Amino acid sequence: AQTVTQSQPEMSVQEAETVTLSCTYDTSESDYYLFWYKQPPSRQMILVIRQEAYKQQNATENRFSVNFQKAAKSFSLKISDSQLGDAAMYFCAYRPPNTGNQFYFGTGTSLTVIP
Amino acid sequence: DTGVSQNPRHKITKRGQNVTFRCDPISEHNRLYWYRQTLGQGPEFLTYFQNEAQLEKSRLLSDRFSAERPKGSFSTLEIQRTEQGDSAMYLCASSLYPMAGGGEKLFFGSGTQLSVL
User: Fold this and answer.
1) Is B111 close to A50, i.e. CB distance below 8 A?
2) Are B111 and B90 in contact (CB under 8 A)?
């Protein structure tokens, strides 16, 4: 079974500091895709970053980067220079390769940014 | 590109009534997904379409739920004989599959918040 676990229901970070959100997943596949989505109070899910499992290099998008540890099935999100607008729910998601087309989401981490 | 549009934003209904939600995907996207999200949880897959064909349905999708995408553009999700347990945010997402470089990215709408009284 494919599951995604986010063990931190809530996190907080001081503005301009760095925070890391954790995600682990369970799969027997060797090739798949991982995502971090942000859901602000407006409730619209916004794609933050995407990682292909076959790529060893960690994905980076401006202040957002991931630490992808394939053997450990870990996919953490690092937010650098945190801004007030980063406050949101963050969801980790897994998508299998060609077998099945679901995206599996974790339960989310609520991030508070302290001014 | 105006993004994924969902209507209505909010729907309040009485138990036993039927409700219908609409989703307009990004115009060039061939895939359209419906997810349900309850408070404190991540989105749960309900069903998806590739063009007009409904290719997969979750076991969460009881026979009271039906989704259509008649012309491969907009989609509707109907819930018949609503129950209080149906109260949730219903999210629509679309994607272009396959995307350049492989894989897929979902683009979400703002959702329809359903409250069943």
Assistant:
1) no
2) yes
Name the residue facing B89 among A37, A43, A50 (closest C-beta).
A43
Q: What is the mean pLDDT of residues A64-77?
A: 96
B36, B87 in Cβ contact below 8 A? no
pLDDT per residue as tens digits for the range B16-41: 999 999 999 999 999 999 999 998 88
- Interface check for B109 against chain A (CB to CB < 8 A): the answer is yes
Residue in A5, A102, A107, A109 to test binding to B, most B beta-carbons within 10 Å: A102
Token pair, residue B50, equals 């590739």
Task: With CA atoms as reference, report the closest residue to A24 among A85, A71, A58.
Answer: A71
Structure token pair of residue B31: 């895939």
